[in-house]
Design goal:
Elements: H1 4-11, H2 18-23, E1 27-32, E2 44-48, E3 51-57, E4 63-67, E5 81-82, E6 87-88, E7 95-96, E8 102-104, E9 122-123, E10 125-128, E11 131-135, H3 149-152, E12 158-165, H4 169-177, H5 181-184, H6 194-197, H7 199-202, E13 205-210, E14 214-222, E15 226-235, E16 239-243, E17 258-267, E18 270-278, H8 288-296, H9 322-327, H10 336-346, H11 363-381, E19 399-404, H12 409-412
Antiparallel strand pairs: 1-11, 2-3, 3-4, 4-9, 5-6, 6-7, 7-8, 10-11, 12-18, 13-14, 14-15, 15-16, 15-19, 16-17, 17-18
Bound molecules: FE2/S2 (inorganic) cluster and fe (ii) ion (FE2).
Residues 70, 72-73, 75, 89, 91-94 line the site of FE2/S2 (inorganic) cluster.
């Protein structure tokens, strides 16, 4: 439970807000690289941390991110011409390069110096992991580019997609890091209600360690002959990774071994969810056609339209099937991701955390809020920020393993943690 003031502090992301200032200290995924396929191609609208922007790939092939409105009379740059290393506003022809410099002002006399005095807001970008990242913070504080194993993985070994979510980033992120709901909400076979008999086994014992990059935690389930450990990492500000390697339910031979999400605030009440999967084994690339085909529907009945929005959404109650809910699945909603959407969006744009009652299996969520609060306090004191230095998380990897029944999970999984890319 949080006080209303604490809830505001952790959820608002606009310019000048505490969390908005924190997000602005990190590189953030801003578009999929596939959204800007061509040099001098069509500009794309971007809304990030409550700021309206326009992205374009310039003649050098570099992704540019500039203010959405022309500084002359605020015409929309989205309708601009992307030409010779700059975006030209089509209203009166002012043209800006990727650094925000005005490089042409045909509406003023040729000898006018006015163009040297006008700039458009522009943010630096960096490409990696199939994504275009941007840094919206103070230029003098710009950190090194991201260092996740994901961004070092070659394109043959990874898959990244994104989807729109109509709620604040924090409740989406809290849903993603919560290992407990998976056994309950995502239960797809409750027909004989046997899951209720297995309830004690399916709810994991959660153990956590705070780290320099955020925190790591394990969901530990005692099975008959051994112990199943799923190890997760949360990397500031909103990156989460988990693994599907060896757990009792196995994995697809052609699929990723590591997967996760990055939750990026569009504004206070809307979020982009980047979903990634990769093979951490250099000798085993992904069968990308199969992975993509599954991802289009997320293999489980989720459908995204060309704007990366789910066809099953709030407007149609996610097409919940009450008969299926009675007979077969916990939710009656198709698709794991759609189930998450339904519950997280259904909490409202920003959930009122002063009304919650957190229990023992909510420890990951409690720790997340502590880590965010501690880091906001540090930001306000001018102290260090978790995960600002990529060295703090460069060599971590999530895991999913069966270990001997009485082994200590930290020791037993040490060798799983070394990255190979
Ligand atoms: S409004 Fe853009 S050039 Fe005039
Ligand atoms: Fe979920």
């Amino acid at each position: 439970m949080l006080s209303p003031a604490e809830n505001e502090r952790l959820t608002r992301v606009g310019p000048g807000t505490p969390m908005g200032r924190l997000f602005r200290r990190y590189w953030l995924p801003t578009l999929l690289a596939e959204e800007l396929p061509d040099r001098d191609g069509a500009p794309v609208r971007v809304r990030l941390l409550g700021e309206d922007l326009v992205a374009f790939r310039d003649s050098d092939g570099v992704a540019a991110l500039v203010g959405a409105f022309c500084p002359h009379r605020r015409a929309p740059m989205f309708f601009g011409r992307n030409e010779e290393c700059g975006l030209r506003c089509v209203y009166h022809g002012w043209k800006f390069d990727r650094n925000g410099t005005c490089v042409d002002m045909p509406s003023e006399p040729p000898d006018s110096l006015f163009k040297t005095k006008v700039t458009i807001d522009a943010y630096p970008t960096w490409e990696g992991g199939g994504m275009i990242w941007a840094y919206l913070g103070p230029p003098e504080l710009k950190p090194e580019p991201p260092g996740h194993e994901l961004v070092r993985t070659p394109a043959t070994h990874r898959h990244v997609s994104k989807s729109f979510e109509e709620c604040n980033f924090l409740q989406a992120l809290e849903g993603g890091i919560d290992p407990t709901h998976a056994s309950i909400m995502h239960n797809m076979n409750i027909g004989d209600r046997s899951f209720l008999n297995n309830y004690d086994e399916l709810v994991a014992n959660i153990q956590l360690d705070k780290t320099d990059y955020g925190f790591t935690y394990a969901g530990i389930r005692k099975l008959t002959n051994n112990t199943w450990v799923r190890g997760y990492h949360y990397i500031m500000p909103s990156f989460h990774m988990r693994a599907t390697v060896e757990g009792p339910f196995g994995r697809r031979a052609d699929g990723p071994t590591i997967d996760g999400h990055i939750w990026i605030p569009i504004d206070d009440e809307h979020t982009w969810v980047y979903s990634f999967g990769y093979s951490h084994d250099p000798a085993r690339p992904l069968e990308l056609d199969k992975v993509r085909a599954r991802d289009t529907r997320l293999g489980r009945g989720d459908f995204l339209d060309k704007n990366y929005r789910s066809r099953l959404n709030k407007a149609n109650d996610y097409e919940i099937d009450r008969q299926v809910q009675k007979e077969k699945t916990m939710t009656g909603i198709q698709g794991i991701n759609t189930q998450d959407l339904a519950l997280q969006e259904g909490m409202g744009p920003i959930v009122d955390r002063s009304q919650e009652h957190l229990g023992t299996t909510d420890r990951a969520i409690i720790t997340l809020r502590q880590v965010l609060t501690e880091t906001l306090d540090s930001l306000e004191r001018g102290g260090p920020l978790r995960a600002l230095d990529p060295a703090t998380y460069r060599n971590i990897r999530s895991f999913d393993r069966l270990i001997d029944g009485d082994a200590e999970w930290r020791a037993a999984t040490k060798t799983d943690l070394t990255t190979k890319f």
